[in-house]
Amino acid sequence: PFTPDELLIVVRRGLEKRRLDLESRALREEKAAIERNFVTMVTHQLRSPLSAILQYFDVLLEGIGGELTEVQREMLERARERLQGLLELINDWLDMSRIQEGDIVRRLRPVDLAACVDEALKGLEWAAREKDVAIQVQLPEDLPKILADPGSFREVLSNLISNAVKYNREKGVVVVRAEACPGGVSIQVTDTGFGIAETELPFIFDQFYRGKDSRVRSLEGTGLGLAIAQKIVRAHGGCLRVRSELGRGSTFEVIVSAAGGDNVTNGTR
Ligand code: ADP
């Protein structure tokens, strides 16, 4: 048993330890915020000059300064391609550091999925046409609205659909389906592409992870698309999962809450 004085010392020590813990946690959080800001600032500063350089390349490739020799054209095209890759990386990076759960939660509202899918498809038509991949959208008329932040949810769909096109075979098919489910609304993006090896499935949502398959490696990518999608879906309180069969294709499924309906966390999650 402690004397009152000893007890006081023990309590004081406990309080002091707690104060130090809190202080170091606050410091850690501050450090993380500074790092995030730094990444955002640097990438932001890089983006404008790189975009300008890209435009100069485009103008040169259009032949504005006179006809290019074949070698010059090839070199410019290669430089342009590398620059484009770098810009994609920077944009993904910025996305990754900008996604804040609080912002998404604040912007949640009833969203018409059909309109959101249409928006997402806008940037992907060219890639689909180039590979002769057909994109079919099958949404039931009476689908409830989803509870989402429209801008970031469109990005989830666009990342999933663009992967489904990119990692598909020539003349393949992508189907975007949705249905009401106990947890809210389930949205599935199915492709007839390469599929993903079971050993790789645990890693594909990690930042910067790219598939080992040589066909995947031969295509441009940053390894951030699924990490971004996962982060956004989680901020919605939803879940994102995948089923895949090597050589046959993959299905990525997103489950989010319906507006005014069940909450995903009470349902299939
Ligand atoms: P990136 O597409 O830039 O490589 P992602 O984060 O979008 O980055 O995807 C990570 C990896 O997951 C890809 O490199 C690929 O191996 C695999 N992957 C994603 N979507 C598909 C898909 N629909 N079919 C096959 N593999 C896929």
From TrEMBL:
Keywords: ATP-binding, Cell membrane, Kinase, Membrane, Nucleotide-binding, Phosphoprotein, Transcription, Transcription regulation, Transferase, Two-component regulatory system
The keyword rRNA processing appears for this protein: no
Signal peptide segment: none
Organism of this sequence: Desulfoglaeba alkanexedens ALDC
Portion of the parent chain present: 107 to 375 of 375
Assigned GO CC terms: plasma membrane
Superkingdom classification of source: Bacteria
A molecular-function term among this protein's GO annotations: histidine phosphotransfer kinase activity
Record domain Histidine kinase: where: 41-260
Name of protein: histidine kinase
